[in-house]
Amino acid sequence: MKARVPTGAALALALTAAAAAQAAEPPPSAVPRSLTFEPKTQVDGAILQVVFGDRALFRLDDGGLPVLDSVEKGQLAAAHPPGAARETFAAPGPGLIGAALDGSAEKQASVLKVWNRLDHPVQYAAILLVLHGQTLRPMAVPVCPVPAGGVRTESWPAPVVAVGLSRFKAATKEALARCAGVRKGK
Fold first, then answer.
1. For residue 44, what are the β-bridge partners?
2. What is the pTM of this model?
3. What SS3 class is residue 9?
């Protein structure tokens, strides 16, 4: 799919082609063949889209669908070399979930940080919109649940322009145990 590259993703575009080539390709049936992409953080039906450089603060309705509270611009310290950037996001208020996307050419990675200020662990599905040349390609990726009151950081060696988060639900004990060995976010 050809798409005009959003100007807010300038840093993501600077990631090297080598880093993009290292990203694992999902099975063709795992992601949709086409996506509509508007370069802004928003909720579209059951999907929360977070674009590069933004953090979405949201809650879940009774059906588990995301309801956007606010959008903030900022940086994640983990997405940059040590000392190169300060974390600009504080923990969200009680009852909210936060999801921020950032990255840097120096680390050759994109980082998603999710804060869960709910009283139960949350799991979700994620699809990345990765830049390959001038083409944006969707990639389904595995993610770990976020513990109640906790934070989880996910990282990929690719220039991620946006991430779509969906299928939010209370995490099972099995899902939490499966990810127990995965490094937890700070």
1. 47
2. 0.78
3. helix
